[in-house]
Specification:
elongated; 10-stranded antiparallel sheet; Copper binding protein CusF; 2 helices; signal
Length: 191
């Protein structure tokens, strides 16, 4: 993950400017939720092609379009999906932004984790969740211009904050933690 991705991600989150919900204090560190958002989409269709070697499926959606789906290595039982099965994939993307205040503020960097939860049953089904957490530090705050500079792992980037009330909580040295969660749930049904 490079600094540009950190910049775009934090820009999306800080620009949202949803007011603080509540804060949590652990020892001398205060974590303040700043904003959050979630988007869910679903694709469903009848399986037309199964290519186990290339880990690809082609489905025909109800509106007649063909959709090619690349199946990650972590997904098991691909050979259990047959032509004519109904496949439904639900994808949820969420972002949570926290402000970290106190002597042990957030470090700069990233972490990433993938968890696969396979459901037992006749047909393949399960959920794969990717979680990426980006850690930055506030380098400067210009309340008059509504600008915040965030130091990421590779660069410092300036953001415009839409909600001026959010700027009251920000101070140089505070940590910014952005957690991105992408969950994909797939289910195969016999027609």
């Amino acid at each position: 993950m490079n600094g540009k991705t950190l910049a775009m991600s934090l820009a999306f989150a800080l620009a949202g400017g949803i007011a603080t919900v509540s804060s949590t204090t652990i020892a001398d560190v205060t974590v303040i939720p700043v904003t959050g958002a979630e988007v869910t989409s679903e694709i469903s269709g009848i399986v037309e092609i199964v290519n186990v070697e290339r880990r690809m499926l082609t489905i025909k959606t109800p509106d007649g379009r063909f959709q090619v789906i690349n199946v990650p290595e972590q997904v098991g039982r691909l050979d259990g999906i047959k032509i004519g099965n109904k496949l439904t994939i639900t994808e949820t993307e969420a972002v949570l932004i926290d402000l970290v205040k106190g002597p042990d503020k957030a470090a700069v960097g990233t972490t990433q984790e993938t968890v696969v939860d396979r459901e037992r049953g006749r047909k393949p089904a399960g959920t794969m969740t990717d979680t990426m957490t980006l850690y930055g530090r506030i380098a400067a705050v210009d309340k008059a211009k509504r600008k915040v500079s965030v130091q990421g792992a590779q660069e410092t980037v300036d953001f415009t904050v839409n909600d001026p009330a959010l700027l009251k909580e920000l101070a140089v040295g505070d940590g910014v933690v952005a957690t991105f969660i992408r969950s994909v749930k797939g289910k195969v049904e016999i027609r």
